[in-house]
Amino acid sequence: MRGEFMGIWLETWREIWEPLSSQDGAPDDMFCEIYRELAGALKIKLKPEVLADVIDDPARSRDSLRATSPDDLAGEREVMKFFERTHEALEDLAGDTFSNAYFNLLTVFIDKYSLRYDLRRPCLLCPTLPGMFASLVRDLRGVTSQDAHLDSLMKEFENAIRDLRIDCSDGRIKTCIQKQVNLLEAIGRVFPGVTGTTLGAICDQVGTWPHDKLKVAIKDLYGFTCDYPGIRHGGTPANALRAIEMRDMIAISILLAGFTPYLTDQLNADSMYRGR
């Protein structure tokens, strides 16, 4: 999943804007209105007189839109708003049929590039669950990359997951879970005010929980990793009901990842949902 418009912005010309301009009934000043909306998503805002000169000229508006690069844009959230605003502008300019053609092109584009949105009528870009999770992992990589120790633990965890491609044995699955708990402990230890060194103690100190049962849930997961033989310690063999398998790796990895925003103040949940 590429995830976001910013990463494939340059493809929008070929996939959306050029085909839209070839639609029956495409207005001559279509690009003027599109660029008017795009101006609100630019990193460096144009002076009113400069913008007026561009949008008064259809050819210049077309060229300016095509020449816009991802580096010119203010970020994913502003680009998302631009696509939504453009639908309304095109509807006002040329009516439902033309704005619907835009909606359909945008839908195909989102599906083709597996973006992190569902497109709903009239033109509302809604983040998806896979998109949110991808953003969480991306932002977590960003946080850990700023610290050599965290970066090393993050890479060890990701390498352990990759190693499952070669061998999905219970030993390798246990290693994946162990590496993820190590990572979460290291992340939690740098939370302001935390002095604990184990995940259980860290959970008691972060003070981010909306309800005590959430804290109990992750502490119970941590207890499982300590008590199940071979994950973090020798454990209690009599408590193991069966061998660890892939469904455990998937479920536990997702559950532990979901608790990460409670263990650090470096992740912005709103940005993970809406984009930066």
SSE blueprint and pairings:
Elements lengths: L11 H10 L8 H9 L9 H8 L2 H10 L8 H19 L1 H17 L4 E4 L3 E4 L1 H16 L3 H16 L6 H20 L9 H8 L5 H16 L18 H13 L1 H4 L5 H6 L2
Antiparallel strand pairs: 1-2
Number of separate strands: 2
Task: Give the mean pLDDT.
Answer: 96
Strand content: under 5%
Number of helices: 14
| Rg (C-alpha, Å) | 24 Å
Number of domains: 2
The low-confidence parts are none
Short description:
With 276 residues, the chain is an all-alpha fold. The chain contains 14 helices and 2 strands, in the order H-H-H-H-H-H-E-E-H-H-H-H-H-H-H-H. The chain has 2 domains: 123 residues, no CATH class; 143 residues.
Characterization of this structure:
This protein is mainly α and about 280 residues long. The protein folds into two domains: about 120 residues, no CATH class; about 140 residues. It contains 14 helices and two strands. It has a two-stranded antiparallel sheet with strand order 1-2. Strand 1 and strand 2 form a beta hairpin. The longest helix has 20 residues. The model has no long low-confidence stretch (mean pLDDT about 95).
